[in-house]
Automatic annotation (TrEMBL):
Originating species: Paramormyrops kingsleyae
Localization of this protein: Membrane
NCBIfam families referenced in this protein's UniProt entry, alphabetically: SP
Superkingdom field: Eukaryota
Main location: membrane
Name listed for the protein in its UniProt record: Solute carrier family 2 member 2
Length: 499
């Protein structure tokens, strides 16, 4: 029986259980969007300030009190601080007691964060929500690393790519679910908004019930702990009856390579000129993902649609979630055919054009009523182009740019860079929007134009190339590099999840 050509019931259960953490991550990303005005009113009452809410199209009017605006921005962006910090601890948590027990342990954070937000009306709402979002962000930083680590290690080779993409698909599905149940007539209203936020921790409860049924990663058991017999039993549960000798021999070889391979710290990586060009490209690609303006759309799309004159902005936001989910699946089918660099160029260039169109639509909305359709179409296309390339590619191209030694440090640094950029956008966008008004997306258009040029001139195509071939493109003028030991599969999976 060929272990690489089957999907057992135990494997399906384990993957489903693991990506519940990804679903929770996506839900937490999107849940803060729809009930924005409702939550701002509660903040205003708790703080004892009067909000100046109007329906004017003037972007300088209709803003909440500055104190409310500050607390709201912090409620949105504090989520990224938790993720930024915890992204460095994924490897430690995953190795301490194993992948399954690691996911089970961090669920305590998810439930705690959900309770803090769910009980917001019982205390000081702005403090409770901010605390809950911070704890949930810390959970999501860990979960977004542990989930792909576990799924990648247990998946058969023939299905590893398909099963690996379920992490991203679960994230965008979680965003969509949060948008739907955040509708005013469901949970996004004055009475039930704490329940809406509190449900961020609900998938953790289901996952905690299912995780004890899931076997531990055989690769972790054999390579990290040296427990061959336990690894053999887990492989049997995942694959069924077959000859384990070949797979166990591969694990043995991986373990030998892991013991030989020296790792490079983050400080050393930053200081070494040998890897400086790769690091610059990696960090710029993550910067392009966040400073493209995509999270301004995800976090504030309802408010943006309202300014664009859309009669039911919440439903338009849900449409963005549907498009996001569909094009995540489309990008999976295209990226290995068209190539990473090509897809990133198409995505960034398309987003740049959409950002310009969005700005034009907002500026001339008061003159031409049909400009609301231009703005709405631009937002939908903006999300489509993002998922084609700039969304998924920066995460896995970093692993392709670096060999085994510097890869863990590079991915940890890239992950921290990504979460930090996410925080800056979440915190600053309301203030920049208040300052620039309808012209706010011209700033993102300028960033996108610069990132498109950078990708064209500096980012190599990595599809189908070895680490040595990729390194040669960067280091050709520096002379021949010392040979790098072959990268091992388990460490690639572990290090790629560090970000």
């Amino acid at each position: 029986m060929d272990s690489g050509k089957q999907l057992s019931g135990t494997l399906i259960l384990a993957v489903f259980t693991a990506v519940l953490g990804s679903l929770q991550y996506g839900y937490s990303l999107g849940v803060i969007n729809a009930p924005q005005k409702v939550i701002e009113r509660h903040y205003g009452r708790a703080l004892g300030v009067l909000q100046n809410v109007s329906h004017s199209d003037n972007a300088t009017e209709g803003l909440p009190h500055p104190t409310v605006l500050m607390y709201w921005s912090l409620s949105v962006s504090i989520f990224s601080i938790g993720g930024m910090i915890s992204s460095f601890f994924v490897g430690f948590v995953g190795d301490l007691r194993g992948r399954v027990k690691g996911m089970l342990a961090v669920n305590v954070l998810a439930v705690t964060g959900g309770l803090l937000m769910g009980l917001a009306n019982k205390g000081v709402p702005h403090i409770m929500v901010i605390a809950g979002r911070a704890v949930m962000g810390f959970y999501c930083g860990l979960s977004s690393g542990l989930v792909p680590m576990y799924v990648g290690e247990i998946a058969p080779v023939a299905f590893r790519g398909a099963l690996g993409t379920l992490h991203q698909l679960a994230i965008v599905s979680g965003i969509l679910i949060s948008q739907v149940i955040g509708l005013d007539f469901l949970l996004g209203n004055d009475a039930l908004w704490p329940v809406l936020l509190g449900l961020s921790g609900a998938p953790a409860i289901l996952q905690s019930l299912l995780l004890p049924l899931c076997p531990e990663s055989p690769r972790y058991l054999y390579i990290k702990l040296g427990r061959e017999e336990e690894a053999r039993k887990c492989l049997k549960r995942f694959r069924g009856e077959y000859d384990f000798s070949k797979e166990l021999a591969e694990m043995k070889k991986e373990k030998e390579e892991v013991m030989k391979e020296a790792k490079i710290s983050i400080v050393t990586l930053v200081r070494l000129p040998t890897y400086r060009q790769q690091l610059f490209v990696a960090l710029m690609m993550h910067l392009s993902q966040q400073f493209s303006g995509i999270n301004a759309i995800f976090y504030y799309s309802t408010a943006i649609f309202y300014k664009a004159g859309v009669a039911e902005p919440v439903y338009a936001t849900i449409g963005v979630g549907v498009i996001n989910t569909i094009f995540t699946m489309v990008s999976v089918a295209l990226v290995d055919r068209a190539g990473r660099r090509t897809m990133t160029l198409i995505g960034l260039g398309g987003m740049c054009c959409c950002a310009v169109a969005m700005s034009v639509g907002l500026v001339y909305l008061s003159t031409y009523s049909w400009m609301s359709y231009v703005s709405m179409a631009a937002i939908f296309l903006f999300v489509c182009f993002f998922e084609i390339g700039p969304g998924p590619i920066p995460w896995f191209i970093v692993a392709e740019l670096f060999s085994q030694g510097p890869r863990p440090a590079a991915l940890a640094l890239a992950g921290c860079f990504n979460w930090t950029s996410n925080f800056i956008i979440g915190m600053c966008f309301p203030y920049v929007e208040a300052l620039c008004g309808s012209y706010v997306f011209t700033i993102f258009a300028a960033f996108l134009f610069i990132f498109t040029l950078f990708t064209y001139f500096r980012v190599p195509e990595t599809k189908g190339k070895t680490f040595e071939e990729i390194a040669a493109e960067f280091q050709g003028r520096r002379g021949r590099r010392p040979p790098i030991p072959a990268a091992t599969e388990l460490e690639q999976l572990k290090s790629s999840s560090e970000a």
